[in-house]
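Predict both folds.
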Amino acid sequence: MDNMKLKKIILGSDHAGFELKEEIKLFLKELGYKFEDLGAYIKEPCDYPKTAFEVAEKAAKTGSFGILMCGSGIGEAIVANKVKGIRAANCFNEYTAKMAREHNNSNILCLGARIISTEQAKNITKIWLSADFSKEERHIRRVKQIMQIEKKTCK
């Protein structure tokens, strides 16, 4: 079992992403990952900001990865990226998932349940979880610059 599988993945969704979240939970279980679901717990209409923020805060605090699902993935990515230490990426295909991890050291994956199929979401999730940050100097430098912007010290 690789080191990533030892980490817990923090999950969250709104009503639009609820069914996809339930499918991703089963998929993660099949792959041997541990996860924590912070909601939504039913498919009743709910707003995404609270859950997205809670997932991002918990992921940042514990050094975990997170996966957020809503209709487009956009709103949750915006919210998650407001949390210090989070680099949330809205991925819509395998290439964006791979680049989000390899080039940007993304720690939260955002998925649009109304944009991609369940199978696409599973493929994106698997690639995102299996990809590693490249640690090439240019990518390290750029991620450091992102972190400086978070601290409001970037010139």
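Second protein follows, with its predicted structure tokens after the sequence.
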Amino acid sequence: MAAMPAANIAFNVPEQLNLRQTGHIQLLLDVKKSQATLAAEIAEAGVKQTATVKVWDRMEARLTAPQLQITAITPEEQSVGSLDTAEWRWDVVPTASGQYPLHLTLTALVETDGATSRIAIHTYDKTIVVKVTAGQWVTDFLKNNWQWLWAAILLPIGGLILKRWKGKADVPSDRA
């Protein structure tokens, strides 16, 4: 690992997402650009993190988290060269409210004797807060509880309306 060259990385972490709201995470890696330059090139919202890591010709960046649906937009395995900035992107959709650890793992893919070995370079752990908006809460509540809402609210209201309607029909008229 001592012979591996160093590279700078920058990535963003959304501090907070709403339930079912898509967040975007972007990771940039470059052997020549500074951390500040890479951080400035991050287009996605969120807190920007930077670091220096060891790299190899092929790298893998993987994002994982419980209760988050994560979709890789770019290939997780990529070649890392000295000419271009390597970029990884993910869409993150929370499936439940709460606070969840977000894990970003960088792995060097080293080929020795015709076989690829994986060397874990660094793992970054961040916490992402998933909030539920009032509208989402009401929608979820109605969707998950419509059976008892029907019985507890609509039937009594219907009975009251029926009672008033029948009461008006039973009142004698004063016309003679």
